[in-house]
Amino acid sequence: MAFTRHTRTVLALTAPAYLWLTATVLLPLAAMFYFSFLTASPLGGKEVRFTLQHYADFFTKEIYWYNAWRSVELGLYVTAICLIVGYPAALGLAKYVKGRWREAIFLLIILPFWSNALVRTFSWTMVLREPFNILFSYPAIVIGLVHAYLPYAILTCYISLQAIDDSLIEAGRSLGATPAQTFRRITLPLSLPGVLAAIFLIFVPVIGSFMEPRILGGKDAIMLGPIIEGQFITAFNWPLGAALSFTMLGMVLLVLLVVMPFLNRQMARA
Amino acid sequence: MERAAKTYLGLILIFLYLPIVVMIAMAFNRSPLYEMPFTFDLVWFKALAYNQRLLQASWNSIWIACINAVTATTLGTLAAYAFARYEFRAKRLLQILLFPPITIPWLIIGTSMLIFFFWTGIGRGLHAILLGHVALSLPYVIVVVGARFANFGPQLEEAAASLGATPWQSFWRITVPVLLPGITAAALFAFAVSFDQFVISYFLAPPGTSTLPVEIYTSIRKGFTPEINAISSIIILFSMGLMLIVARNYKFGGDN
Amino acid sequence: MSRVDIQHVSKRYGAFAALDDVTIAFNDGEFFGLLGPSGSGKTTLLRSIAGFIAPDQGSILFDGEPVESVPVHRRAIGMVFQSYALFPHLTIEENIGFGLDVRSVPREDIRKRVAEMLSLVRLSGLAARYPKQLSGGQQQRVALARALITRPKVLLLDEPLGALDRRLRQEMQVELKDIQRESGVTAIFVTHDQEEALTLSDRIAIIDQGKLIQVDAPQTVYERPANIFAANFLGDANVFRGTPAKSGLKLADGTVIATLKPSTGAAIVRPEKLRVASGRKKSAGNSLTGEITQAIYSGASVTYRIHTKVLGDMPLLAFIQNQTGEVLDTGAAVTVSWDKEQTIPVEA
Questions:
Q1: ipTM of this model?
Q2: What is the pLDDT of residue A218?
Q3: For residue C8, is it left (φ>0), alpha (ψ between -120 and 50) or beta?
Q4: Chain B neighbors of C73, CB-CB under 8 A
């Protein structure tokens, strides 16, 4: 054998997990990429040719780019609300609540986050009807998604806020900074990695959401996620669905490329 | 300031728990249309016992979650061990490869699995759902078990060897017991990932076969019955209870 | 015969030589300190003796038997780790008994031996606790008891007191020495703390950049260092460089200072061997005149830094016993003198 014993051990330990991941995640993504250039699914028995038509459709047909924009817009709304509501909560938890209270509240915040997302979305259908009467509307989708991802925002901001040594804040105060200046010049910049992580962790899945809009959105549910779902479940136009999926993936990577350098720089500084 | 912070956090907790509490209350309300006044009744829980579709789906979910937990924990622990105890060139690459299953939207992962499994003849069904769930659970297992590994370096194993323990003795009497809290947490985590997973299962479930979340979604889309309320209440209490155990376990494992 | 023999051992990591042709013989029952700066190779040497590292060249013998092919668990060593490496899931009793348990010693015997060890390290009554519940000093003693219970051929200690605070470290030094003497075990320990090395060791090895610089009793290493590195690493030293002269060392300005033995180009004098008198008057023996640039009063003694023309930028360092309660002023002209016998020629 050309492999050393060390290499063989590492291979034996990592191969099972990574073969599995290759077969169920990496190869499927490659297969979908291939499908996205086909005129029809090769499984249907029809003649199949290569085409860029699906990608062209995305940029030319209003139904696709407009609804893709609606998904991005939804992502922006939900991310912004989660941060505006979540950051102060994380700050309060990290800097003003102490001891057992902090532990208990922290646990209560992350607990629903790990529970069933579908059921939590469903539960809003019972609250948003009478007397609020906003079920099956755009605000209902936003509320459901904020409910789903708010714990993410609080969690990531909390982690980076509680890592800030209190003496840094005290040092800022001792040098004559007002509480507001201390927050703006010290606390906020140091907690930025948490904020950026939250942006990534919320924005990406929200763009890809389809179950929440379907359950809470009624007529307003039409955006990229549900359209992709439709291509696979009802319309059976897999190549188009694949192309739309990959366009969405491209948008995700774009966000990653924008957020990553900031994140890396912040990490390197910390 | 602490008062203000607590009040604000209290409001957030109300927002987070309000729908869950309302849903659970409605599961015990006699009226099928959520009409007031509230009348306590177990009628929807009794109805559950006769809903064959939901029972079958629950059974499927539990089985898949169990097999998934065992498989993902085993494969993930092996990989975590390699990361923690060996240096190799592809390490960084392999670690980066853990990100796609976590960061790419499930919608994309699910649809690509559907295409690939259909194309290769694996097809849809419980076996395909299990394949997908293990892939989603693996990164979590590797991270959780890896964190436990990071907490104790190779010194414990070296200490055991210096005291005369053979590698075999050292593995069973030191490595495994010390890792156990992490492995347990990872297994519970993997169970929860699978049990709560909807998106992937939704694309990989053929008509007539489904897991609990898929069955619930179908019922909701069709115009639901309060039985869904009852089963949802059970699920959410169950998965929160499970996570409470993980949190305690993980904390026990996390400090040193 | 020596208990452990290190013969021409070398270990390289790429271009970096962690150990470069090291040869030491460790005697039976001695407490031996390996002293050097971090990265000097002292830990590599300790881990090679334990068997965690296989040397590239040379051999390691226990009681005359080569052990290169003997795995760690059959080398009959005891090791105390810097982090103690106590098993977190086992009680103190189980931790200490572990070495006997893996050798299938009967339960009753283990219980008895553990009880003995617990009383040796003064921890009786804590048997049922877990490591987490013990203080740093207590954990240290558990680690020691655990390593000693198997009656190892050699006890290896990696910075054994490094994790303790200063006061506790001083207490534990005395205790460690007592326990080692009582058990009669051959002990080799690694440290970068010179005071610890002087206090604990019967013999010290100074290691730098993978090379053995000097092996001697603590007093010898301090009083007769082999080279400038050893002199500076163990304690403070005033270093004189020059050219060999008939009766000593000729400095740059032509001053000749008398040395203990003929010198090769450098000599050192320990700061506490210097005498400082105010005024400029040549006295018998070696003397230099200069000016005090800094005087630090620290109760029992006074530290002076003295500028001399011949040494230029390098001030003379003098530790003076506080016998009169007086401190000379900064700027004062002084004469520094010392004996020929305290002027030790060293390798440059």
A1: 0.89
A2: 84
A3: left
A4: 160-167, 170
